[in-house]
Amino acid sequence: MSAITTVAVTLALAPFAAFAYAYIAYPAILYVIAALRGRRLAPPARHDWPSVTVTVPVYNAEGTIAATLDRLLEIDYPRDRFQILVMSDASTDRTDEIVREYAARGVETFRQAERRGKTMMENLAVGYARGEIIVNVDSTVLVPRDSLKPLMRAFDDPTVGVASGRDVSVGDAAGERTGGESGYVDYEMKVRDLETRAGSIVGASGCFFGVRRAVHATPLPPELSWDFASALVARELGFRSVSVVDAVCIVPRTRALRTEMTRKVRTMARGISTLFYKRALMNPLRYGGFALMLISHKLVRWLPYLLAPIALVSLGVLAMQNSIARGVFGLTALGVVAGVLSMRWPRGSRPPKVLNLAGFVVAAFIAGFLAWFDAIRGKRMATWNPTPRPEAQLT
Hints:
single chain; 7-stranded mixed β-sheet
């Protein structure tokens, strides 16, 4: 085998190796560690409930904010220890008007005069929040009435600085859970459960997560993500972060893959920027197992998106020399075509499941590569537009 062929094979296999480690080997290692450690005994429950401020950062969310607030007002939690604070990032639609209609029911509002972005709104929330625990809720999701108490019970353990809810991705109808996105979310929640049993998760759910005030006190740069950074800041302060299985959050799935791809580019680019801003936490000599988990769950998982174009070119070079490589290249090309067809599928109808899955994979890889490109060139993504989601019902 020539040196050029060896390099081409290595480059072609690199993203597959990273993918296999991040999605198969890493969870298997976590499973073994969790089994050896056993279940951590829960600390005695507090007799009282901690005071909570639920913050809802919004920008032009007139289509979803009313349903979100209706559900939050139904939450089972002592009202004298429960504050709802909507942070409007200079919304230009009817969002602020709708929120003001809930003032008589105790919903408080802060409006930023000019757009500064979601992270800046979350930074500012600390100054208006009265709770010991600050819970962030996305304006496009629904939180069941019995989800907050399990999230708060996690903070009975003084070692916990961040508690993350369990996302459940649904379609238009109540309980409908089909498609690649739902399967991926289920997988991610299982990995976080294993990380919790192994010691600590390395990132929280952006849709529904709670943070101790001490963890939230230090502002983040506006281009970074608090959901990911919260677990990193908590570790720096000596806390661990956990995923709470019973703290369910209903996340309606977007109808269009192109919309989902735009969201993924933004969230992954901000995630990569956050990781490298807190890159000191990837030092295993200082942060031990947490550093290895952070590298495995985040860095190695994101690497295939950066390596995929190089691997495709290398596979094309090998295809000119080897029949097996030609077959693999042909199947890959077929998958890409199927994915593009799914992404271009007419609105109002759903593509076949095979095309839907191919579309999800292709959209993820395109989004991942664009996210790396944006992060490497230092593109700032402080502001955001809400992801359009269909209305979901709670079962």
